[in-house]
Extracellular solute-binding protein (Hungatella hathewayi), 430 residues
Amino acid sequence: MKKKKVLSILLAAVMATAMMAGCGGKEEDTSTGEKKETENKTVSIMGWYDEDDMEGVINAVNEQLDGAYTLEYTYVALSDYNNVLGTQLASGEGPDIVLDGAEFPARVKAGNVEEITDKDYVKEFSEAGLSLASKDGKVYGIPSYGWFSGMWYNKDILSECNVEVPKTFDEFVAACEKIQAAGHQAMGFGLADADTAQASLMGYLENSFYHNNSDNSDGIDFDAKFAAGEATLDGNINDCVKKWYTLIEKKIITPEMLGISNQDALNTFKAGDVAFFNGGPWQYTEIKEAGVNFGLMPQLSESGENVFTGGGPAASLGINVNAANKEGAEKTLEAFASVEVQQAFIDANPGSPSYRKGVETELPDEYAEIAECVEAGNIAVNWDRWSVNMPSQTMINESIAQIQGMVSGDLTPDDYVKAMDAKADSIRYE
């Protein structure tokens, strides 16, 4: 699902209205002086997904509720979302249904969401899908769908420049240099407001540090040690960050991109002006409708074998322990767990995996280059593994800021690694 391109206006007023709409009250009967209980029919949820893209999902939920309750959705810009949601939940308020991504484990840790372990619908989801919503054998939420990222590529530009779809990171760098020499822009990054460079770096680390790396005998278990404070990134990932930094050194990623929004960068790809663009299935329909001849490839490893691409549960949904409409929230989460609503998530994100039994998924033809990786289940990202002992969104935000510093020329790869360690030291739960 694409992220909305403009900030919400008068956010506080909007949320106040939404919360009031979700609360039951008492209504004075002026003719008799008696108070009558007003039935609470509205269930509230908020998220960072564009309202247009959520429309099909919300409609599917309301069809399942069949008039008993009505789900109302409020948009909050991604840059504001965690602060807004966290503040509301900490004050005992917030939407009836809690929707969150990398920070859902933090909501569980804080006691913000109800335990749902014994609900029948929980059994319909895979263990991987429930990973961010589980703690100590108990379940507190359900997944929406699975996300993965990769690189969109313009087939016509590659053909014009006589470039094959790269299979390794070195081939990718060489392809970018050849494309730039031919007068085209190789990569489009909107670093003013997006995490695309962060996704690129983490994709490289997944392939070249956590996997396919004889020097890291722990593999992904390294992150359990890092999360616990038993290992540091410094002295371990430095060489990999320096290798990825090649994209900056060779001016494939440039300081000018710091002033470009992600949507503007996507627009240049849609216009056929850029060869590669980091993104994923949430952008498929928008690119398809632009008429570009395109494909989607995974993040790349050094060898081109055992390739992984970044991803995991996109967002989890749970019941706010302080929901204004607890009964409605319970019915709504059950609706979210239905095949029909889970299918609506997939329909809005073509090619994305589902963690729900009975949901049909199919990779579009444009996903041929990434199909083997996705079908093998080689989809992972380190911040999900960090979330067991730290609010991973804080680490994501720190990584984005430090990458911006590398792109501007103010920071080195070693500075990046040290800053990430320092941030982790300051936010671990225990």
The chain has a mean pLDDT of 91. The domain at 150-308+390-427 is CATH 3.40.190.10 (D-Maltodextrin-Binding Protein; domain 2). The CA atoms of residues 210 and 257 lie 28 Å apart. The chain has two domains: 11-25+39-147+313-364, 150-308+390-427.
